Amino acid sequence: xSSPGELSGGxxxxxxxxxxxxxxxxxxxxxxxxxxxxxxxxxxQQGDRDATTELVERIxxxxxxxxxxxxxxxxxxxxxxxxxxxxxHKARHTYRSDSPVLPWIFAIARHTRVDxxxxxxxxxxxxxxxxxxxxTFEPVAEPVRSPDFDLWxxxxxxxxxQQLVIRMLKVSGMSLEEVANAxxxxxxxxxxxxxxxxxxxxxxxxxxxxx
Length: 211
Fold this sequence. Notes:
Blueprint: H1 4-19, H2 31-45, H3 49-68, H4 74-91, H5 101-130, H6 147-155, H7 160-171, H8 176-183, H9 187-204
Helix pairs in contact: 1-3, 1-4, 2-3, 3-4, 4-5, 7-9, 8-9
């Protein structure tokens, strides 16, 4: 049986090493890949080390891109990925073999990301509260912000379901079919959410009319 420690130092570490180069493994693309993931997940539940390694190596690159986003550092994203797989390991007995794997894992990944961001905000707030205030007021220059920074601040104002679709399509580089598989919805639903998200972003950017 694979242990959390083995996941952190073994399969996940290997997947991270492979993902550090320019070539990135492709995410599952069709029903045959989805069926393969189910087989691997069942093997993982039964303690098959080879199945565990292949499962982690197939999904980790896609998960890493999903967790990272454009505003996070790679080390922070890698920490989230490690935490995500540890949560998957603890919850592996709850996976049903007749269910698709990606929606189950991405549900855990979403909670992992939310919890990590919340912890980071709390740490930042505590650190800033300990900073000494200057004896005299000195104007501080505003940090330089990139267009991407402002855009993703706006994305954060979208409904959670629309944020998720945009993140998967534009950050993780997933296709419409892959997003549908990962969210357990239809391609039509993904298209609808992405369209609404783009329209909302146009309004927020001042390039569209609010409906």
